[in-house]
Specification:
133 residues; mainly alpha; 52% helix; rod-shaped
Length: 133
């Protein structure tokens, strides 16, 4: 402990300074007995925070409608669906939501077109079968 009067170093249990005889008092610092607040843990992941819901990309629907319904409209849906995750990673949430909506819309258009063509083919098959008999 150092003497506040002359600056001489004394032992920690001394009550008077060995150099000048000044009375030594331990200075109590408020808050010294309180442990420091815990430090926040460092994040090791670069994944986006879970504060906002994720943006769906509709890639599965786009692929299925391409294979089973309508190839041209399904490809458009796949192109939009493939852009969604890149925009989310770049932090463009508004653009990702817009692109996700377009992927969904084109998947439904491909499904509708496939449904119309399928029903039309079925009707022609039935009419052809009736005309032959």
């Amino acid at each position: 402990m150092y003497c506040p009067n002359c600056g001489a170093q004394n032992s920690e249990d001394a009550t008077y300074c060995a150099n000048c005889g000044n009375e030594l008092r331990k200075i109590e610092t408020p808050g010294m007995d309180v442990p420091p607040p815990p430090q926040p843990e460092m994040q090791t992941s670069y994944a986006p925070q879970a504060t906002q819901p994720s943006v769906p990309n509709y890639l599965v629907q786009a692929i299925l409608t391409t294979v089973f319904c309508c190839l041209p409209f399904g490809i458009v849906s796949i192109v939009y669906a493939a852009q969604v995750n890149g925009k989310v990673a770049a932090g463009d949430r508004a653009g990702a939501l817009e692109t996700s909506g377009k992927a969904r819309m084109w998947a439904w258009i491909a499904f509708g077109a496939g449904l119309v063509v399928g029903v039309g083919y079925l009707l022609l098959f039935i009419v052809g079968a009736i005309a032959q008999s």
